[in-house]
Design goal:
By secondary structure, the chain is mainly alpha-helical. It contains 3 helices and no strands. It has helices at 5-8, 14-35, 37-150. The termini are far apart. 0% of the residues are buried.
């Protein structure tokens, strides 16, 4: 509900009343312009064009967003593939390390076996040397006995 002119402008003078009347006339003119069929059609066409423009902008923005989303998806897929490659490389390195550990353990056992075989061979050689030495003593004793008996 609009206030009455007399209530709004009490005691403000003629200039205020004229300004109020001018504002009302401008408002009424605008309302009349909007109710005229040609103006309404023109405004409706403008609104339709603006709506089309806005809809087109939204479609373009949506398309750009889809492109960005697809680019991000591709980038994420590349990162996932790189991680998979790194995981596979790590797994290969781990397996190679395990193989190397097994080979080193086998070589260690072979070295221990070789040392044990060498020890046994040296022990056998030492025993043979003792036997040879014992045989020499025996032969010397026999020779000495033979010398004594021949004398």
């Amino acid at each position: 509900m609009r206030p009455r002119r007399a209530d709004v402008h009490k005691g403000t003078g003629a200039a205020s009343v004229q300004a109020y009347d001018q504002a009302n006339r401008t408002r009424n003119d605008m309302a009349n312009d909007l109710t005229q069929p040609e103006h309404t059609r023109s405004v409706q066409q403008d609104l339709r064009e603006r709506a089309r423009d806005v809809a087109e902008q939204f479609r373009q923005l949506a398309e750009e967003a889809r492109e960005v989303r697809d680019q991000h998806r591709e980038a994420l897929e590349m990162v996932r593939q790189e991680r998979e490659c790194l995981r596979e490389a790590g797994e290969t390195a781990r397996a190679a390390g395990e193989d190397a550990r097994i080979a080193a353990e086998t070589a260690r056992h072979a070295a221990i076996d070789a040392v044990n075989a060498t020890t046994e061979a040296l022990q056998a050689t030492l025993e043979q040397m003792h036997v040879v030495e014992e045989m020499r003593r025996t032969l010397r004793d026999i020779r000495d006995v033979n010398k004594l008996s021949s004398n």
